[in-house]
Amino acid sequence: MRYISGLKTLAKDFYHYNFSGMNELFSYDDTHEDNIEIFMKDNSFLEIPKVIWMYWDDASIPPYISLMIDKIRNDNKDHDLVVLNKNNLVSYIEDLKFSSDKYIPIANKSDIIRLELLKRYGGIWIDSSVILTKPISWVHDINKDKKVDLIGYYRDVSTKDRMYPIVESWFLCSQKNNLFINEWLDVLSPLKEMGAKEYFNMIKSRPDYEVILQGIHKPDYLLVYLAQQIAMRKINFNLFSKRSESSAFLYQENESWNSSAIARDLCIKKSPITLPPVIKLTNDNRRGIEKLIKLKLVKKDSIIGKLMSGAL
């Protein structure tokens, strides 16, 4: 009965967006950006290598995720794009081992993997669930101008102290062997042997836990952010971070994180004139999109429709 009810809701929304005159998604406005720039030390310019790292644990990637990856590849031909999985990872990080006796979620393993890759090779880490709507050259422009250790996106709702913003791990840009990335990885690395529960309990027992916690939601899962906050307080760093809610999570914020509404916005509403340069999809967003794709309710002029046709 729940499935039938869900279908009725989707059908109702489909016709609502088609005939109500409210079928165009609003445009991104860069004047609403609220970047955080932190400069604690003098940096010489070091180039961020033109390599994009992505990871999907299973070698079999959903078709629309493959289209997102292909778009990034096609729009950034001056970059090498490396898509890793659990089978080919050893070719790049041959000595990485996780305890077989402790529970470590794939997400936590992936966080260690991205920091290992950035430490060893540098470059740009992008989660496979990210849609890039413009070339990544803006990252290199920022680095050349600002000479920073890290370029990324911070979560405003989680950040209580703007000197130590909660930088999201799904988009990270850095040079090879960067001191901040190295420190972040060093703080997180005990997780490989301790497992997620023991590692979290260790962090939670720290006298400064409430300080580093800030507004992090589900800290026992987002261990990489706790490790980041510890690293930020151990060494000086330079950072350029864009506000997630102003761009990457713009449409999620507009729908108060209602996954069904977000999926409909991306799959049914007409794509706006100006898109955010980055659109991040959460697991819930992906499930909603997959449902609409399966039901063949994706409109050709929507964001996902244009992605699927190669017109985005």
Automatic annotation (TrEMBL):
Entry keyword annotation includes DNA damage: no
Q: Where is the signal peptide?
A: none
**Is Coiled coil there in the keyword field?**
no
Alphabetically sorted, this entry's keywords are:
Plasmid
> Which superkingdom?
Bacteria
Q: Enumerate the Gene3D superfamilies for this protein.
A: 3.90.550.20
Q: Name one Pfam family in it.
A: Caps_synth
**What protein name applies here?**
Uncharacterized protein
Q: Please tell me the species this chain comes from.
A: Escherichia coli
